[in-house]
Automatic annotation (TrEMBL):
InterPro entries, A to Z: ARM-like (IPR011989), ARM-type_fold (IPR016024), DUF4042 (IPR025283), HEAT6 (IPR052107)
Biased amino acid composition, Low complexity: 390-402
Bias (Polar residues) ranges: 352-362
Cited PANTHER family: HEAT REPEAT-CONTAINING PROTEIN 6, MALARIA ANTIGEN-RELATED
Keyword Protein biosynthesis on entry: no
Region (Disordered): 299-362, 374-411
Protein name (database record): HEAT repeat-containing protein 6
Basic residues bias (residue ranges): 316-328
Matches recorded under Pfam families: DUF4042 (PF13251)
Protein's organism: Otolemur garnettii
Start and end residues of each DUF4042 domain: 424-605
UniProt keyword annotation of Metal-binding present: no
Keywords: Phosphoprotein, Repeat
Amino acid sequence: VEKMAAVQVAGSLPCGLPREAPREPTPEQDNGFWRLSARLCALRPDDSSSARTEIHLLFDQLISENFSEGSGVAPEGVSALLVQACRLVPLNQNHLVSKVSQLIHHLLNRLQVIVDEQNLDFLLPYTISAIQQCSSWTHMEILQAMAALVYCNGSKCQKYLPDLLGKTGILTKLSDLAQSDLEVRRAAVHCMANLCLSVPGQPYLEEPYQNICFQAFLTTLQSLKSSDMDDVTFCMLLQNALKGIQSLLNGGKMKLTQTDKLGALLAVLKKSMFHGLPGLNIEMPMVLYPAPLPQYDGRPLVKPQPPESGTFRPTLNKKKKSRIKPKKIQQGEEEEKESSGEIEAAPVTGTGRANTHEGNTWCSSSLSVQSLPLDGSGPAGKDGVSLPFSSSSWKRVSSSESDYSDAEGGVQSKMSYERSYQAKVRQGALACFLSTVKSIEKKVLYGYWSAFVPNTPELGSPQSVSLMTLTLKDPSPKTRACALQVLSAILEGSKQFLSVAEDTSDHRRAFTPFSVMIASSIRELHRCLLLALVAESSSQILTQIIKCLANLVSNAPYNRLKLSLLTKVWNHIKPYIRHKDVNVRVSSLTLLGAIVSTHAPLPEVQLLLQQPCSSGLSNSNSATPHLSTPDWWKKAPAGPSLEEASVSSPKGSSEPCWLIRLCISTVVLPREDSCSGGDAGSAAGVTYEPSPMRLEALQVLAHLARGYFSMAQVYLMELGELICKCMGEADPSIQLHGTKLLEELGTGLIQQYKSDSTIPPDQRVPVFLVVMFWTMLLNGPLPRALQNSEHPTLQASACDALSSILPEAFSNLPNDRQILCITMLLGLNDSKNCSVKAATSRALGVYVLFPCLRQDVIFVADTANAILMSLQDKSLNVRAKAAWSLGNLTDTLIANMETPDPSFQEEFSGLLLLKMLRSAIEASKDKDKIKSNAVRALGNLLHFLQPSHIEKPRFAEIIEESIQALISTILTEAAMKVRWNACYAMGNVFKNPALPLGTSPWTSQAYNALTSVVTSCKNFKVRIRSAAALSIPGKREQYGSVDQYVQIWNALVTALQKSEDTTDFLEFKYCASLRTQICQALIHLLSLASASDLPGIRRRLELNRNMVQSYILQFLKSGTQGDDTRGPHSPQERDHMVKVALKHISSVQAVAGDTSKRAIVGFLQETLTIYFDSSESQVALLELKNR
């Protein structure tokens, strides 16, 4: 039996628990080591028999000492002792070499020492030479010593890699399938795996050596167990190979880009995942390939084996719970224990399980579920794999992987002994699979979806084996937890892949579409996970199942699936909300939150929320124990504020939404004694639900406010009181979630009052009630949260919440509350914290659009100064928010221009306008996130400038710079949103009649930029916007010279000609809108043309007459209008435009002898004639049909 080095990462044990504090070294241990060390160091190399005997005795004494970490022995002393020991042992003494190898393994393992580089440079060559020169019977002990030496020392072994991993390297040969001694082969694979371990900050194995190791591990996993092999040794061989691959994937960031390489790995992982699973023996192909259907996994019939000791499987119809005392367990196994010290076996359905499954040393079952995170975070090992996949799980605690002694004297059967190692293989395979999932792209991973995720079997066909097979049938709780973690990792981020699923209609075809197959897989996942939920009794695994369900619910496209899936999940999970384990309760709320946030609002969820509060609890079975009475959450009294506000509940329902009532109760009511865990409240003697439970309840309320506001609004005032309570608590996280809920409620109220809202006015929350809601909060703890500089995240969230106030409600707030809001926001703009400053800038950008504030010159000026200051901030996020707010502020300036009262324009400071223009010019050179709003602001500011400003010399230079900034942005290869905004801004510039458009030098540059974009930009929305800008000037002189005018005309015709030229399929949907906008611009130009322009127009019409006429006829007939360019919509408006252009051209006094006028008039008349003839024939045809 091999004794293997077990050097642990400091602070973690194989089960992920914190290591005990170092014990005080006992004088006997300390003195014993140094006494023996001194005797060893006093010896000199001597080949005499007596000297060898003395060395043997010293080695035996050192090996027999029970040293342990924390015994006060310095690592340097251990390394020095080992070097001295090797110096005393010549390589021709096989027995002594074997003994010194055992000593190296024993001391490094027991004292958990990683050898320093200087001593490694002596010890590692010694072991390499020993293998090369000593008899083969010593090889296993030497390889054990070598594994201990190279552990976490891979980066220091680079110069020895050719001897170890080269073509004729020691490890390469000894790990080969040709190696007849399985123990030696296993030790070589283990040594190779230790070489692959990564150390943060240290260089990793070079790629050629990575590939050699990967192939060796893969070959080992593909090998078959021969009849003469020991089961335990073979399991340990597989474990070491799996550990090696996991290290390559985690530390070496190995890229599995080749399909065959990835397919071969997935094939052996799938086979290893089911290694030794009772009742199952699958045969896998050598390589798995991406395929929509499950690939062959042959399953020869296996005779059912008798139940093993330590495994309890209750019968299906058993009613009573049975109490089973924990059996004595051996070092290699663990059992699930409840906190009471007894194990409760609950009746189950299907593949039932009780808590007495066989276990293993992967991690303690008593860990809280926080140590089993789905995302790989938490107190995991150094490779960042979450429990039970902690990297420390691979490391040894005892001096031997195979030490299997019963400390309490019990005797385990050989079968149980083997089963525990088989379970470790399955867990190792799942850990390796999890690393594989995280190291490859999702789009590659989902090609193998059918190999690992269940699908509904065809009639008469067996169910394909998958991760759910392990979840439902594996007797080891740790393996079930591992399988669920892998499934969660696969489901995470699967929304795009699963979005193709569709089964709302019956498919009666000769083939099954891929969308139906994915939908079938989603249904089967629901079925299996709900089966697992009912069958499971371990709280830790229950939590994993529920979290896995939450991941599935978050990513499945329920709007494309048949109803009832969510209803089944909903009804199954409701009883677990009062489970005795707090982690199960928290994950149950997480799942409910996922249901109410997925594709909200869903009609199915709407109906579920309206169910009576006791619905779904009556069919709770004995597999979900520890429940209170079904109506336990009715104890939370509804606040009187609802009646005062005369908001009535739906008829026939005492509680409009039981889930909201549940969440409110969870947050505000004292904890019931029947539940575990709890937080002390602010009031003496009051204990609330544990903080994670209350936080999750607040998140569910926020989801409901976002997706199902019509239900949340019934509880508006009560939720306001809840928010006040949360923000008044000492826990910053509770305060923060309270403000997040406030923001969601505020946003929901704003959505109700938007101009495009479909909610009837009588179903909206009355404005007076919204005013009451915000007054309560502003008189309560919200101002304190805004001033809480110790918690900047809370301050920022409070700013976001304050910006979600309904404008109509703000204007009705008491005057002192309005002033409070404005004063606090302006004050917080000076905050040193970036997130607070960004949130404040955004909030000011919202307030400046409020109708009751936008004509307040002083407020707008103060806001402008605050925003300009934030635009200079070092933080990109602050500058981005400030630029957005500057754009909003300039929108306000334009809105004020449209009011009949000119006082705002007259009173607004010209000096401040200059500052705003300068800041916007600088911001237009910043990152794209800032640039898009900066150019928007520039266009608005140039539009806003009054003649009194433009006449001043100091404005001339800044106007020129501003327009040059816009031109530069239009022509640059920036993000399309930036260029779109720049074209829009240029159109705004053209709207200012006071600017010298047409006479100033920048006129031609501006038009050239727009014509360049309209003919060549890849993005059609940008082309549409540039064509719209070209049709804005209202006078002929604003288009400049004849050459400039004709150039614009020719560019628009060219753009019309190229309106279908695109290689991007997504742009085709904008083709019609682009043609409409160009036709509108061409007709607009004709309606302003002068006599000298006509020859240029005629020349281009002669070249493209039919093309232009066909598109203008399309414009007249359909007028497809896109991109909101404010063009004419009705047929009368469109043909009126052409008539106006015809009338204008007819009235132009043409130069004598020039036929251009007649040609253009003829073109327009012919176009109108064709259009009216077509329209009249359609009308006549319609009348004929009606008759």
